[in-house]
Amino acid sequence: MADGNETTTSRLGLALFWIYVALYGSFMGLVLVRPDLLSWRPFGGVNLAIASGMGLIAGAFILAVVYMVARAGR
Amino acid sequence: MLHETSPLAVLIFAAFVVGVIGLSFWLGRKKQSAAAYYAAHGEVHWFVNGIAFAGDYLSAASFLGICGMIAFSGYDGFLYSIGFLAGWVVALFVIAEPIKALGRFTFADALDAKFNSRGIKMAVAISTLVVSIFYLIPQMVGAGSLITPLLGLPQSVGVVLVGVAVTLIVVTAGMVSTTWVQFIKGSLLVFFCGILTVMILGRGLLVNAGRPGTEDLTPQVKTIRPDGTVLIDGQPQTRDHDLRPVGTILRLPERYAGQTATGPLKPLEYLAALGDSTIVTWSATRHSDEQGTHITYSPVEKKGADLLKPGGYFKGLSSGTLAGRLDFASLMLALFCGTASLPHILIRYYTVKDGAAARKSTVVGIAAIGVFYVLTLYLGLGAMTSGGLDPTDTNMAAPLLAKSFSTTLFAIISAIAFTTVLGTVSGLIMAGSGAVAHDLVENVFGVPMTDHEKVRCGKIAAVVLGVIAMALGILFKNFNVSFLVGWAFNIAASANLPALVMLLFWPRTTKQGIIAAVTVGMVASLGWILLSADTFEKVYGLSRDLAPMPFSQPGLVTIPLGFLVLVAVSLLTPRRAEGNGFR
Predict the structure, then answer these.
(1) pLDDT tens per residue across span B268-300
(2) What's CA B143's distance to the chain center, in Å?
(3) Given B90, B92, B308, which is nearest A67 (Cβ)?
(4) Each residue's pLDDT tens digit, B231-252
(5) Residue B146 lies in a domain
(6) For chain B, how many structural domains are there in total?
(7) Which of B359, B272, B279, B295 is nearest to B98 (CA)?
């Protein structure tokens, strides 16, 4: 159980985890504190609220793939 | 609204249920071992397991609740999607591999792996049951609200039908049949939501949804008289004299001046054009007098841009009150922490062969679930402007959107929505069955059982849970289903996550610490919910102001409380013997 493999999982996994926490936390912070900024429409008429929501969904997938590939390569 | 029942819908739906139950009986034709019943032998392929994750997780709340919320309140439903998906990050990066390595059949196995303590098994089994039951309620309510428009039967019949079908699926082949039902459901759900989204984009935006009758914007009044009869605008409700369907675009953006339709749009163009349109949504107000309860549905003209920003459903965000913001922050924290603490998700890690398969199946799950949530945004917005919404029932938004295209599609989507309920409920009953039979009866009470008896015990537990689920589904029928799922996430995150995380990362954790954290997290979050303003208003029928809790979602307080209790109690109790540490 407590083999070295478990520890490497934790390190890479935790690094990616904290990256996502920072992204998710900043977005929720914006929603709570400056929701007016989310009405800004820089992306061809799509507002920041929708763009960042889609970004968070895509971001989770990208980090997941990074993790899977990195772990498989060990 | 009274809905026409279509014979085709009944047929597709019946074929589906018969097919799924038939498959379950076929999978369960051989005598089973406990390893097969509880964990499908640990031999499920990672891809199948990944899609089954989606089938397990994408519940009635995701499909019906979020679509309805976006259709009636705009962007805020998408915040649920973001939070629901973010929780998978915790599952993959922190929980997946240890839980796979530590446990065998249930979540309690994993938490208890280092201690062999009956106290831990008991506390975790009870928290598993509480979370599963809270999660079951919205699923069953969703089933009930579908059966009336689909088959023209009373709400309670839908609840019983789901209860019976699911119990059959679980008792025939346990985790094997549950996995395949969830795989089929997950694939169908994502596939048909994709088709619907393509059709929405192909249709583009139409003034008054291109349907005659929807341009009438006079308020509508539904009266429920003391004897139970229903009046619409003062006349008895019939098929010909009913509430008008709602949800339309009043004006297209200026660049389409003089036109009544945009024609086909690309995904981003659709969002941009909607943002520049003027949309009519309908809101309800109710008052009672001696003639009965009157519910008035009134049109509200809104700018598309205002519907595509936060604050439409979470009023606390737009009003800016501190309690409202804390309530929202608390919900988003619970969604983030809750996914990886849900017993029916965690048990799916025991159906694959090793850590690598657990990882790969989670990535497949994240892909399928992420795609689905992006599609839900389009489904919700498509429903908002489809001219086909039932103003009395937010949960019907997705099927009625399908109906605005064709009755065949309505039949298919309704059948899929119903299967959605089957897939998730079977996972929950499975998790509950393991908690009762494997954790409580076998490990806590120490009843000696042969392998065959363990399977039988699990099946009896599944039948009992099925009956409880049916009773609760009938009791709680008037709730928006997403709202209730939020509660289940709060309880799961408060009771299970602190124990799970600290066990993995803090060697000083003791068994007393785990028992205390699970118990306090569960009792505190449940107690908070029962004393919150939302429960006072919607369950007890009392005034919101009487509720003692400052906001309704407990996670912001009770998740840190669980960690605090674990640390305090662990420091006050003796260390584990050397050599027993996790790392």
Answers:
(1) 999 999 999 999 999 889 888 888 899 999 999
(2) 12
(3) B92
(4) 999 888 888 888 999 999 999 9
(5) yes
(6) 1
(7) B359
At A46, list the tokens: 């799509």
**Sign of the dihedral through C-alpha A60, B69, B493, B473:** negative
Q: What is the mean pLDDT of residues B552-557?
A: 90
Residue B535 CA, distance from chain mean position: 18
A13 vs B: CB within 8 A: yes
* Tens of pLDDT, residues B490-548: 999 999 999 989 988 888 999 999 999 999 999 999 999 889 888 888 777 788 888 88
Q: Is residue B362 part of a domain?
A: yes
H or E segment to which residue B111 belongs? helix B107-112
Q: What is the CATH number of the domain that holds B166?
A: 1.20.1730.10
Q: How far from the centroid of its chain's Cα atoms is residue B463's Cα?
A: 22
Please say whether the beta carbons of B294 and B268 come within 8 A: no
Is A62 near chain B, with CB under 8 Å? Answer: no
User: Considering the domain boundaries, does residue B372 fall inside one?
Assistant: yes
* B496 touches B521 (CB < 8 A): yes
Q: Which domain holds residue A24?
A: 4-72
- Residue B343's domain comprises 37-204+315-572
Interface of A with B in 14-33 (CB under 8 A): 14, 16-17, 20, 24, 27-28, 31-32
According to DSSP, the residues that pair with B261 across neighbouring strands are: B206
Cα of B319 to nearest chain A Cα, Å: 11
The yes/no answer to whether this complex scores an ipTM above 0.85 is: yes
Q: Is the pLDDT of residue B480 over 80?
A: no
> At A54, which amino acid appears?
M
Query: CA B291 → CA B230, B366, B373, B411, B533, distances in Å?
Result: 11, 52, 44, 37, 29
Which of A7, A17, A53 is closest, CB to CB, to B93? A17
Burial class (CB in 10 A: 0-12, 13-18, 19+), B290: exposed
The DSSP output letter for B244 is P
Site of tokens 């003796």: B574
In chain A, how many domains are there?
1
Contact list, A71 vs chain B (CB under 8 Å) = 356, 359
